[in-house]
Amino acid sequence: MGAIDANMNREHREVQAEPGAIRRAARSLWASPFAQALLERTEVWLPPLRLLRERVYEREFAKVVPWARRFRGVYATFEEAMRAAPASKPVGYDNPGAAGFMEPCRNLSISDYPILFWLQKALQESPSLLDIGGYVGISYYSYNCYLNYPENLDWVIHDVPAVVSAGIEIARKHHSPGLSFTAEITSALRPQTVLAAGSLQFIETDFSDLLLQLGCLPRHLIITQTPLTQLPDFVTLQDLGPAVCPYKIFNRTRFIQSIEALGYKLTDSWENTELHCRIPFHPERAVASYSGLYFKASR
Questions:
Q1: Bridge-partner residues for 269, per DSSP?
Q2: Closest of 110, 159, 111, 113 to residue 138, by C-alpha
Q3: pLDDT at 52
Q4: Helices then strands (H, E): number in the chain?
Q5: Does the pLDDT at position 35 exceed 80?
Q6: Inter-axis angle of helices 2-17 and 19-31, nearest 10
Q7: Residue 287: which domain range?
Q8: Residue 256 and residue 223: Cα distance in Å, rounded?
């Protein structure tokens, strides 16, 4: 307890010594779900308050910052969302800022363990894997400490060209056996497992159509960190910090049925409770938690 108290006292002194910390704390409180819910209730009676808050949010959303995770707007298509993106930031991951702002390794959360379970089984059956939207190797490096990768591992990451270039450079500096990158999905790829970890919402092409571009349909599909709801499909904009991206929210039933139509059976599902999506001024579109799914080919 003494150590905890000492840390709290030190943090308190740092806050007192740094006015910027107070401003950051105030902004954090302002952005909290409780504060936003209270504001939304108040705006029903004071419409000018909503207009003011929208203007403030638009200004903050347009700022280029090192990192952010916030959303804006509801749109029918990727194209409509791109037209609404602020001109001050690049759109998408295919630029140096968005390609290099995240570390190649992260701490695991509880919802990673179903992935580890199914991924270990799939790699034991076949070492061939396609990691769709795998960025610079986040899943590869993060799971390396927990799984025994096969010696003949063939882990291919598909992503946009800027991310591919950044990933190749990182792989040169790290021990990365079996890891490679590609900017295209073609019939030359014939993986037995496809992993999509928090990436499908950034891709305009339906996942089922991506699978049909491969040389053969994979046996295992591991999908996680994906926003699935009972609402119809829609698109919002996500602010990453250095860039913004169109971001799709999927209807769960339609998403699962589109995969099952290819001959897959949904074998397991889980929640990513650490992730949620709240779109300011659109509380009815909130996603309380994200989803993980494991499909296995039924034929």
A1: 293
A2: 159
A3: 81
A4: 11, 11
A5: no
A6: 100
A7: 110-297
A8: 11
Residue 185 lies in a domain: yes
Q: Domain for residue 71, yes or no?
A: no
Judge contact between 122 and 192, C-beta under 8 A: yes
**Residue 29 to residues 34, 264, 286, Cα–Cα distance (Å):** 9, 45, 19
**Domain assignment of residue 285, yes or no:** yes
CA nearest 188: which of 180, 178, 196?
180
Tell me whether strands 220-226 and 193-197 are parallel, antiparallel or unpaired: parallel
| Amino acid letter for position 241 | G
CA distances from 281 to 49, 63, 165, 199 (A): 12, 19, 37, 25
Q: Based on the structure, what is the number of domains in the chain?
A: 1
In a domain, 46, yes or no: no
Residues in the chain: 299
Rounded CA separation 89/70 (Å): 14
* pLDDT single digits (tens) 110-156: 999 999 999 999 999 999 999 999 999 999 999 998 999 999 999 99
CATH number at residue 171: 3.40.50.150
